[in-house]
Amino acid sequence: MDLSTTIYDSTQHDNFYPAASADHGLSVSELTAFINDLMATLVLEELGSIYFNHLQVLLPIEGLSLSDFDARWVYGRASLTSVPLELPVNNVASLDEQAHNAYYYLTQTLTMSQRTILVQLHDMFTKQLGHALAYRQLHKMATKDMLTGLGNRSAFDEALTRQLGWAQRHHEPFALLVIDLDNFKTVNDTWGHREGDNVLVTIASQLKGLLRDEDEAFRFGGDELCCLLDCQSQQQLACAAARIQHNLKQSDYLNKRHITCSLGGTIYRANDDAGSLFDRADKALYKVKNSGKCGYHAA
Ligand SMILES: Nc1nc2c(ncn2[C@@H]2O[C@H](COP(=O)(O)OP(=O)(O)OP(=O)(O)O)[C@@H](O)[C@H]2O)c(=O)[nH]1
After folding, report:
1. Rounded CA gap, 272 and 60, in Å?
2. pLDDT tens digits for 57-103?
3. CB of 294 closer than 6 A to ligand 1?
4. Which residue has a Cα nearest atom 18 of ligand 1?
5. 155 C-alpha vs ligand 1 centroid, how far in Å?
6. Is residue 198 in contact with ligand 1, taking CB distance under 6 Å?
7. Strand locations in 163-206, DSSP E?
8. Which residues form the GGDEF domain (predicted)?
9. What is the DSSP letter of 110?
10. How far away, in angstroms, is 262 Cα from ligand 1 center?
11. Could you give the ipTM of this predicted complex?
12. What is the chain's percent helix, strand, coil content, to nearest 5?
């Protein structure tokens, strides 16, 4: 889910402004005037665009249009500044161990009561921001394989659905490559489970290093990995598979543990869905497994 959408929904923007004004004992037009007078350009380092969405919540108010605001918006600069005011964004530090602050660049010095209101409004905005960040953090944890740092099966499912949608709309094929380690159980049995874990981490990190920016790798489960590749032909896919296999064979660490892998690949075809695409790649993989392992087959 898009983070900005989450924020927008969670602030229930139709009700937000009147609620804010009631809380602060101001009429909507007084509050509007206040925001207007402040001409506050909000710059939240790293989270600027997220915070900007909060501002959009405030924009449909009388007298303040997006273009007005745009004209005043200064991201990362303080050209309008008379008084930069830095306020902590609550609940965020504990989520990702980084301190985040919102910087309000003001065109006039605030009176004490304006400052109090700004701080109160800020707390209201950042509560929503905290929720959005908590959601983002949870989503990250739910889609990441904790051992290897690759996307997990759930991330793979999401990415595959996205890729299929793109391929169907734009008639642009892509490739699915399924990689399964050979005799991995022997590594666990011989060197122990921890060493088995190290092997998985090593392979995942090599894979990440090998792929181009537009390609993605996932741990599908156990000793099986998947890649979604920007390949449009069997030839390109075969090259990618050969590159991966060649690279793994160069690793002394993996050679000492007799690690090889089998790969099955396929290219998207019109009318494919996730099931048909995956089945083809999986069948190709099992052809390799059934004919001596350590090879590549395409379907
Ligand atoms: N160390 C470690 N082992 C795991 C993990 N997940 C699954 N395994 C082990 O991976 C092994 C996979 O075994 P199999 O599916 O028989 O695969 P294989 O030994 O590679 O056999 P082939 O695929 O036929 O070559 C099992 O022993 C699992 O216990 C993990 O996170 N860490």
Report:
1. 44
2. 333 333 444 444 443 433 333 233 334 556 666 554 444 444 455 55
3. no
4. 183
5. 21
6. no
7. 175-181
8. 172-299
9. P
10. 13
11. 0.97
12. 55, 15, 30
DSSP SS3 for 296: strand
Q: Output the CATH code of domain 153-298.
A: 3.30.70.270
Q: Decide the pairing of beta strands 101-106 and 41-44.
A: antiparallel
Q: Does residue 197 have its Cβ closer than 6 Å to ligand 1? A: yes
Give yes or no: 145 in active site. no
The answer to whether the beta carbons of residues 223 and 180 sit under 8 Å apart is yes
Strand ranges (DSSP E) for the chain? 41-44, 83-88, 101-106, 175-181, 216-221, 224-229, 261-267, 296-298
Does the pTM of the predicted model rise above 0.90?
no
Rounded Cα–Cα distance for residues 206 and 115 (Å): 53
Return the structure tokens found at 58.
């405030």
Q: Which of 153, 184, 199 to mutate to test the pocket of ligand 1 (most atoms within 8 A of CB)?
A: 184
Asked whether 220 lines ligand 1 (CB < 6 A), one says no
Nearby residues of 118 by Cβ (< 8 Å), 6 or more positions away: 38, 40, 85, 104, 110
Q: Is the CB of 279 under 6 A from ligand 1?
A: no
Decide which of 82 and 194 is more confident: 194
- The phi and psi torsions of 263 (rounded to 5 degrees) equal -130, 140
Q: Which atom of ligand 1 is nearest to the CA of 221?
A: 6
Residue boundaries of the structural domains of the chain: 3-142, 153-298
